[in-house]
Design brief:
The chain is 19% helix and 35% strand. It is α+β, with helices and mostly antiparallel strands. The chain has a 6-stranded mixed beta sheet, covered by helices on one side. Strand 2 and strand 3 form a beta hairpin.
Length: 211
């Protein structure tokens, strides 16, 4: 009887060890799996889609960048009805970003523009939050043109990493992506693709915004 019990326990232990080994193999495979290729990338190109060990937020499965495989001068076309921004190099599609543009009451203006400023660590001079001297937020999502500073408070502008200004105070930058037009007029992008756009364009790069 004791021998039978010992045999059953031994078999069970081997099964558990085998199961744990399978789990570890699967975890390792997932960790080392290559970033999936965007189905929106032009045929013949391998498109980087973010994720992996990149440090930026707001990953998605549609934005892509193949700019390092294409040469030529950059240009950008922003299509409001699609909520997408297209990056071209030498007239060839080099990347696409899902975007969030101006919401109702703060629409993103259409027209032909060009990049006038690049600021990797930009902060808004108009939109942000009010904090007290202890660093406690006392009012969020403020508009300094309308909301007065409460007594004893100070203003901190909203962070807009990889800011690319092209029309007055309007620019492209990393920002929250709710899946629809929700900004104060700027063009928000997932962080990783905003960095790719930022590193590709320069002051003077043409930017076209259409409906």
């Amino acid at each position: 009887m004791m021998a039978e019990v010992f045999f059953v326990m031994s078999v069970s232990l081997l099964f558990v060890r085998g199961l744990l080994a399978c789990v570890l193999v699967l975890v390792a495979a997932c960790a080392s799996a290559p970033t999936p290729v965007s189905s929106h990338a032009p045929a013949g190109h391998t498109a980087f889609m973010g994720g992996g060990d990149t440090k930026h937020r707001f990953y998605d499965n549609e934005s892509f960048f193949i700019g390092n495989q294409i040469s030529g001068s950059p240009s950008i076309k922003i299509v409001l009805s699609e909520q997408r921004a297209y990056l071209y190099k030498g007239g060839k599609l080099a990347g696409m970003a899902l975007i969030s543009t101006g919401r109702e009451g703060n629409p993103t203006a259409t027209g032909s523009f060009s990049i006038t400023e690049k600021d990797e660590e930009h902060k808004s001079s108009q939109y942000g939050n009010y904090f007290d001297d202890n660093g406690k937020m006392i009012q969020s999502d403020v508009d300094t043109s309308k909301d007065s500073v409460p007594p004893g408070a100070h203003y901190e502008g909203a962070k807009m990493p990889f800011f690319m200004r092209f029309n007055g105070g309007t620019g492209m930058h990393e920002g929250f992506m709710p899946g629809y037009a929700d900004s104060h007029g700027c063009i928000r992008m997932p962080g990783w693709i905003a960095e790719e756009f930022f590193n590709t364009v320069s002051v003077g790069t043409p930017v076209t915004v259409v409906r």
